[in-house]
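**User:**
Make up any protein.

**Assistant:**
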Amino acid sequence: MICLIFSRAIIANEDIRSSTSGSNLWWNDFWGTPMGTGNSHGSYRPITVLTYRLNYRFSGLKATPYHATNVALHGLATGLVLSVARTVTCRRGALLSAALFAVHPVHADAVASVVGRADVLSCVFFLLSFLCYGRHVRARDGHRAHHGQQQQGPGSRRPQPCCAKSGAGRPATAYLVFCVLFALLSMLSKENGISVMAVCIGYELMLRLRSIKKWNKVSGKQNDAL
């Protein structure tokens, strides 16, 4: 069954085997069929097809390099899971999470099957997008904290929550741009990659609620002191 899928996704796909510039890659579906036609399967994954094209350029139809690429991408995804987990838990918990991700049987089909690369590649860009958003949040809040300290003094205003309007600075903006870019690459690797934007929005809402609760607690203590 895997050999049949491999032949259909690689051998019969002209977007991968063609010696031309490959512009049709951006107009065809995952199987090399023009989008919008009756024969199209509706799976638009040009970034994944592009990686197959690179494999084909260097190794032709030898299966080993295709599988090796999948394993390398899974290793990269495992490292990114470790980085993401490290931001929300202790080092031991992050190592345990990454180890579980690396060996969990649910990933066997995505890594072992050549066509499963769409899942692995989308996961890599998904995690990169979320990591960039986390860096954006830290750079933005760090800029706001520094800006607030400069304004502190006798009779200064009460501390503002992190959702108060303030300039985010160039580093924070750059991280946000990369976040959107990686989200787009994740979606172009497999359609469900766009869900990273919902994850980022949920993360932002969680941080804002936490910041508002903290600010209300500090304000309540100040009022009690007065």
About this structure: The longest helix spans residues 117-151. Residues 121 and 189 are 6 Å apart (CA to CA). Residues 1-56 form one domain.
